[in-house]
Amino acid sequence: MRLFLAAVLILGSTAAAADNWGALFKNGPAEFFDDEDMQIFLAAARKTLDSGAVEQTLSWENPKSKHHGDFTVLKDSAWKGNPCRQVRVRNEAQGRKSDNTHNLCKVDGRWRLVGASQLKTKK
Known about the structure:
Layout: H1 2-11, H2 14-24, H3 35-51, E1 57-61, E2 68-79, E3 82-93, E4 96-107, E5 110-113, E6 120-121
Antiparallel strand pairs: 1-2, 2-3, 2-6, 3-4, 4-5
Helix pairs in contact: 1-2, 2-3
């Protein structure tokens, strides 16, 4: 899930992400995402990262496919002067579930994955 989220958020393109996600997430729920799922997922990810409050959960669902998930900001921090967020990402599709936590920082207008050891908690 880490590589998938990184590719999607760094590239910011549904088409680019769709080309890569199948190989990166074999046997996970994202393997079953169609283009519409991906668009809904990405919109929820961006909204969560850009404006979600800490401990607020933002859910997403594609009513056609019934694929769904949610994002929760766990904490805010900083890395090299950039705002960062630790986000829990849960997804479900075709009976497969995933539950992962990622640290992302906004660098040059794009959210990028950052290792936990690189982050400093905001005071």
